[in-house]
Amino acid sequence: MDYCVLGSDIVKRYGNKKVINELDIHVPKHSIYGLIGPNGAGKSTLLKAIMNLIPIDGGDLQVLGNAAGMGMRELERTGSLIEYPCFYDSLSGKENLHIHSKYMGYHNKKRIDEILDLVDLTKEADKKVENYSMGMRQRLAIARAIMVMPELLILDEPINALDPDGIKKMRELFIHLNEKMGTTIIISSHILSEMDCLATDIGIMNEGRLLEEKALKEIHKENKDKIVARVDDLSKATTLLEERGILDFKVIEDGQVQIYDMSYNTSFFSDLFVNNSLKLYQIGVVKKTLEEYFFEVVGENI
C-alpha cells in the first residue's frame, strides 16, 4: 500500500513529558484519515509535527514520499488548518485569500471566487474579517487550506463553530475533494458520529500513542450488529430468551435488551415478547457506532 504520511517510533517531548510516545502512523494515499482521541491525547501535536511546525525528538516521519518529512516542496502541495485560524482582520475575506495565494505562488484569481462559493462565503467575500462570526472564520480557514488544490489536507477540528448545515456542507466538500480530486485528508475531531460519516480510515489516539489504525469498513465488518428491544419487563424478557437458548444478549437499565444473536430476525423477537404478554415499545437492528468502538479500544476511563 502507498502511504501519504508514514511514521515510526515518533517521539515529541515537552520537558520530561512525552506528548508523543513512540508513535507509528500509516495514512494511505487518497484516504480520509480520521484521527480521534480524548483531549490531551496528542492529536494537535502530531498534526503540527507532520506539518513540521514543531521538530520531533525521535523516530522517522515521511510525508508525500519525502523521507525527511515536510519540506518546502511538500508544503506547496499541502493545505492545513491547525488550531485557531489567524487572519488580517482589517482586510476582507477575499483580500486574505489573495495574500495567501501570492505567498504560496498560486496566481489563479478565478480560483478565489470558486473557493469562496464552495465554503458559502460569496456574499461575505468583501466584508472585513473582524466582522465575521466564528463559523465564518472557520469556513474562511478551510477555504485558505484548499486554495492551492492540495494533495494533502491536514485539518484539526475543522467543523468547530459550524452549525449543522455548515457541518453537512463541509462534509460534502471534503468527500468531493477526496473522491474527485484525489486529495488525502487527515482530519482530527471529537465528533465521532461525524467521523463515522466521513472517514475511510480511523486512527485512535490516547496518551501520545496510536492504539489502533483500521479502515472504517473493517471496523463495521468486525463489529456485530445487534437487535435492540425496549420492553416493560426486563426480567421476563431475559427469562424468555434464556429458555430458548439465546444467551448472547445484554440488559440495559432503561428497559432495553440488546440481543447479539443475529440468527433470529426482529419478527421472531417481536412475536416472542408480544405473545408472552410483554409490552414492546421499540425493536430494531442497530449497527455498532464508532463511538462504541472507540470506548472499547480506549476504555471508559479516559
TrEMBL record:
Listed A to Z, the keywords are: ATP-binding, Nucleotide-binding, Transport
Q: Which SUPFAM superfamilies match?
A: P-loop containing nucleoside triphosphate hydrolases
Residue span, ABC transporter domain: 5-232
InterPro entries referenced in this protein's UniProt entry, alphabetically: AAA+_ATPase (IPR003593), ABC_transporter-like_ATP-bd (IPR003439), P-loop_NTPase (IPR027417)
Q: Which domain of life is it from?
A: Bacteria
Give a single Pfam family match: ABC_tran
Q: Which GO terms describe its molecular function?
A: ATP binding; ATP hydrolysis activity
Alphabetized PANTHER family for the sequence = ABC TRANSPORTER, ATP-BINDING PROTEIN (PTHR43335:SF8)
Recorded family membership: Belongs to the ABC transporter superfamily.
Its protein name is ABC-2 type transport system ATP-binding protein
State the organism of origin.
Eubacterium uniforme
